[in-house]
Amino acid sequence: MGKAIGFGGVFIHFNGESKEIFEWYEKYLGMKFSAYGSGFLSGNQLMILTFKRDDNPLMPFINLRVDDIESIISIMKKDKIEIISDITDYEYGKFATFKDIFGNVVELWEADEEEYIKMVEKEIENYKIH
Predict the structure, then answer these.
(1) Beta bridge pairs of residue 83
(2) Model pLDDT, residue 58
(3) Do residues 97 and 119 touch, judged by C-beta distance below 8 A?
(4) Cβ 69 vs Cβ 110: under 8 Å
(5) Average pLDDT over residues 119-125
(6) What confidence tens digit (pLDDT) does each residue in 48-72 have?
(7) What per-residue confidence (pLDDT) applies to 104?
(8) What is the Cα Rg of the chain in Å?
(9) For 118, how many CA atoms within 13 A lie in the half-sphere containing its CB?
(10) Full-prediction pTM beyond 0.85?
(11) CB-based contacts of 53-60 (< 8 A; 24+ apart in sequence)
């Protein structure tokens, strides 16, 4: 039987005009855009898929993987971007959450890939047991 092997696209309705959103995310996160949006064409794509979003208004709309969370958050702080939760370290990586200038809540994650994979495999196994 076939199985899902990754995402072809994730469609998110962010606040703000597309051109302004694209420019902002290119400036702060180095994302490149076309008329269709952006994509990640290199690197290991680790992802958790949640089908329901919490009603908490500070719950992120999306979690983006980054390669240097400290430098990104430092620049955002310098530019007075609202940081909702500063960098927090876990075994499987570092996280921070911010609001973009359009009010969209976004989480950043600098992953420890090896630890993350071990954790997810263990969680899946435990879930199947219970």
Answers:
(1) 98
(2) 87
(3) no
(4) yes
(5) 83
(6) 666 677 788 888 888 888 989 999 9
(7) 93
(8) 16
(9) 8
(10) no
(11) 57/105, 58/84, 58/97, 58/105, 59/105, 60/97, 60/105, 60/106, 60/107
